[in-house]
Amino acid sequence: MQYKLVRFDNEENYINDFLRIPKDLYSKREIVQNEKEERSLLLGEHILSGYFQITKLLVYNGDMPCARCAVTIYQGDDTAYVGFFESINDVECAKLLFEEARKISIENKCNKIKGPVDASFWIKYRLKTNNFSKRVFVGEPNNKDYYLNLFLACGYRVSETYVSNYYKRLPFWGFSDKKCKDRYDKFLSKGYKIISPGRKDFDTVIKEIYKLLMELYADFPVFKGLSEEDFLKLFSYYRYILDFSFVKIAYYKDEAVGFMIGTPDYGNMLYGKLSIPTYFRLFLKRIRSSRYVILYMGVKREHRGLGNAMIQTIMDNVRKKRANTIGALIKEGKVTEGYVADEIISKNTYALLECDVFANPMEV
Fold this sequence. Notes:
Layout: E1 3-8, H1 12-25, H2 35-42, E2 53-61, E3 64-73, E4 79-87, H3 91-107, E5 112-115, E6 127-128, H4 147-153, E7 157-167, H5 178-189, E8 193-195, H6 202-216, H7 228-234, H8 238-241, E9 247-252, E10 255-264, H9 276-287, E11 291-299, H10 306-321, E12 324-331, E13 344-356
């Protein structure tokens, strides 16, 4: 095949082709594309656009767009980030994108490339590596099963791995995880409080969560800080999708020292156009879901063990709702990976990859 690479700016025809490729590759059941958000990022109009510079790439076979990616550069960062990667299953096609990403990295004095990172930690990152037949859960990255091979064939290596734990449905009566229950009792006896805020408390609680996130996630791969104002804008929609009984804030001496954010499993419902029937389905899902996804969790280091205590409150919730749970996108090796380990029935796995910019050119 004769492939042609295009590095483009804001040309409408190229933007439309960039947005079209996921629709060509995925079924409605599989796709996790937020087209409105992607367009705003391509045009530099997103809330986070002021934090980075994006270079957009397309590969064509004749007039047909068949691969895409965007390379993100942060001022003062010697790592470039490749994301929004989509491609047909052809190494030659993918190689054009990755080689151009290397040239862009050199132009910007970067010595390493990491990916997939869709512009920001706060948008989407990581590559799914197994269980592609499972229906995607809310917040999960999804991609074609051959993408890992394309990255590896083009000079990348796995640098970080992650898991999502699927937990069995807990019996309504007679279940107790001794470690979690003991920790819960221990921390409450010391004066800790673990509460679920109400919807009316959202504006206060989201600011507390912001401060905890900025501190506790600072050492995560590809993490970038952002202002409180931009964080509040970015996550304002959570007010409307959360079941607040799955939001937990732990306090000690009136200071927020830990948090957990779970949400009903909306699958990929949040990504498409929100019609009136979709709004109604979302409303019903928020009231009662058959599965809940724990998306964010953090505890200040001086309060170790508090995480298990917070898990106890979540287990109480899912037992009452007769629901299943997913502990989502946990970095392998973190203590959270092993929470309630005896109840894990399966795992999805993910990878973050990297390559050295000044290594020998990619050979296929």
